């Protein structure tokens, strides 16, 4: 079986989509009888270890992202590769290139709906554009042979738009990199805080959807016995005294070191389509405090952490205090066990193969919806 993934969501500092594609590429490379090709934007046409770069211009201030403008080069690479199945990882030109290639190759095309496009565009341009974007999503994803969504909330949104054959396919976490043993006992001294201070952490981009002002106001409510470390690009410059900032993209090993050294993850984002950093924190053996919104309600069980009302700093502060009034270390151990059972990449890849065999008409058991 030859599977080709195609996406523009792949850059040096990109997040969940690249993590998913890299993990898939590594694991498919170890499975006999499977060939995996990955098509991503680059400065020049090239190939290395099954990763094909297709020329696309760099986005100004785009942190390494490139935006394809010509359909033909992508379609031509797909036609040369002759895959048995194509998976699309973004809703832009590469998606239409895959559908165009399908007409010549006569192979199924799966769309993975990683981002809530109407919500993203509405947040940036105003919600007057939402009906037009929803119509675009309905048209594009209605063309795929099967649509995968990382969470039930995302699948329900697609179904509500009239998209058919939508299946929930969670992402996974690297259980070797994100591990409790990755912790650094010297982190508190590095941050200049006392050993008995409760250390919270947030890791991710400092984009509007992450609601970082809620975290900062929460820390003002909590006071000096609690300290928050913000890790990632585009972090705020002005923060309370009990907040430290690493304003830079960090590689996975560094994020794992910081997560494993903290006591709990704090996340105020209320529009998350999946929430990979929650799984990474849980894999590192720490509980999470997040908001009851988006996909978080599907990921965070009472055994792994606490959920609170969205956009409410005082409610989040109360949840943090409640967490530390109990046994957060025990919750962290349970969180680790939870991701081991449900979110190992091998489990995810085996589930993906079920989807692929289903659309190819192979005689394997059909994958259950949801």
Give a nutshell description of this structure.
This protein has 370 residues and is an alpha/beta fold.
CATH architecture term of the largest domain: 3-Layer(aba) Sandwich
Oligomeric composition of the shown chains: single chain
What is the CATH topology classification name of the largest domain? Rossmann fold
Name the strands of the widest sheet in spatial order: 3-4-2-1-5-6-7-8
Order of helices and strands: EHEEEHEHEHHEHEHEHEEHEHEHEHHH
Give the amount of beta strand, in percent: 15-25%
Global mean pLDDT: 93
Assign the structural class, choosing from mainly alpha, mainly beta, alpha/beta, alpha+beta, or little secondary structure: alpha/beta
Number of helix segments? Answer: 14
Q: What can you tell me about this protein's structure?
A:
This protein has about 375 residues and is of the alpha/beta class. The chain folds into two domains: about 1-170 and about 345-360, 3-Layer(aba) Sandwich (Rossmann fold); about 180-340, Glycogen Phosphorylase B (Rossmann fold, 3-Layer(aba) Sandwich). The protein contains 14 helices and 14 strands. It has helices at about 15-30, 70-80, 95-105, 115-125, 130-140, 150-160, 185-190, 210-220, 250-260, 275-285, 295-300, 315-325, 330-340, 345-360; strands at about 1-5, 35-40, 45-50, 50-55, 85-90, 110, 145-150, 165-170, 200-205, 225-230, 245, 265, 290, 305-310. Helix 4 packs antiparallel against helix 5 (about 130-140) and helix 8 (about 210-220) crosses helix 12 (about 315-325). The longest helix is centred in the C-terminal third of the chain and has 16 residues, at about 345-360. The two termini are about 25 Å apart.
